[in-house]
Amino acid sequence: MYPFRLAPDWREKPDWGSQDLRPLFGSRGQAIGEVWFTSEENTVTNGPWAGRTLEQLMERHGAALLGTAFRPQALRRRSPGEAAHATAARASAAYFPLLVKFLFTSAKLSVQVHPGDAYALTHENGLGKTEMWYILRADAGASIALGLTETLSRDRLAEAARSGEIERYLNWIPVQPGDVVYCPAGTIHSIGPGLALCEVQQNSDLTYRLYDFGRPRPLHVDQGVQVATLEPHPGLLQPAGDDLVSCEHFHVERLHRSGITTYDSDPTRLHLLIFLAGRGALAGEPYHAGDVYLIPASLGSFEWHSTESTVALRAFLP
Fold first, then answer.
1. What is the separation of C-alpha 220 from the centre of its chain, rounded to a whole number of angstroms?
2. Are 304 and 50 in contact (CB under 8 A)?
3. CA torsion sign, 94 to 12 to 131 to 147?
4. Using CA of residue 266, residue 269, residue 270, residue 276, what is the dihedral sign?
5. Cis ω on the peptide bond leading into residue 23 (within 30° of 0)?
6. Which residues pair with 279 in a beta bridge?
7. Full-prediction pTM beyond 0.70?
8. DSSP-assigned states of every residue in 250-278
9. Which SS3 state, helix, strand or coil, does residue 226 take?
């Protein structure tokens, strides 16, 4: 066991991604929309297990990696409609419960909503999607739509989604670096242009598009209206200190480090460290901004050497 650095999975999104990958990366010459780190297919890039996937690590190391409190689930990440033609998940399938991403936007994302677990398990043979966002960069005027400006009936919401009137009901909220957004399943939302953010979410790809600003992609109005929360969203979180989000699906907190400190792993659960600023080494494994490390539950105590003042998010199961 040692700190596992996870390889980024760069995902091009021509409709809304960006070549501006500040503040974490330089341009790759493509419109990158998402960078995934903790899907089961992501590989390790350091140490003796370099080249192995997260799924292989889970199947090989079990509780030593995941923690004594972890309970395996015979699930897979699902996309809308996939369950109709997908075989049942293997009982031994290694399903990693959290998905960590970075997002970069140059245009509005679709107006969308994610189902909760009860609906998703019944209709999609997978888990729902609750997520949170930590804003890394916000260009002038950047904003995120959270919920609607007024409560609509489900029939009226469906009508507005199909006609495009939903645009005038979206509750756009200005954001700036350091802001924290909690987006539970059922929240109608969109992300505007000029943003870079870190996302921590349930490991699900169940996104029901209600409206797509004229882009010719499939919509899922009937499903989206069924799962949408009709009441207004409370807006940005105002965390007291560095405990950012705590819910039934994940806990996310912000860490600040400088100099040499001791890090204690938790034998009951693994940790994910998402580096936003600084550089240094974890037990001799070098890190810099943009890296994501998995800290095995059984690792014990090790030295965290910050050669530059470091800010990181730590995510784990509650």
1. 21
2. no
3. negative
4. negative
5. yes
6. 288, 308
7. yes
8. -EEEEEEEEEEEEEE-BTTB-EEEEEEEE
9. helix
Q: Which of 79, 71, 66 is nearest to 112 (CA)?
A: 79
CB 230 within 8 A of CB 157: yes
Task: Fill in the amino acid letter for 9.
Answer: D
What token pair was written down for 42? 């992501």
CA torsion, points 82, 98, 180, 104, in degrees to nearest 10?
-60
Tokens, residue 199: 């996302």
With vertex at residue 295, the alpha carbon angle to CA 93 and CA 5, rounded to the nearest 5 degrees, is 85
Per-residue pLDDT of the chain (318 residues; tens, 9 = 90+): 999 999 999 999 999 999 999 999 999 999 999 999 999 999 999 999 999 999 999 999 999 999 999 998 888 899 998 865 555 444 345 899 999 999 999 999 999 999 999 999 999 999 999 999 999 999 999 999 999 999 999 999 999 999 999 999 999 999 999 999 999 999 999 999 999 999 999 999 999 999 999 999 999 999 999 999 999 999 999 998 999 999 999 999 999 999 999 999 999 999 999 999 999 999 999 999 999 999 999 999 999 999 999 999 999 999
Q: How far apart are CA 28 and CA 125, in angstroms?
A: 36
**Burial bucket for residue 88 (CB in 10 Å: 0-12, 13-18, 19+):** exposed
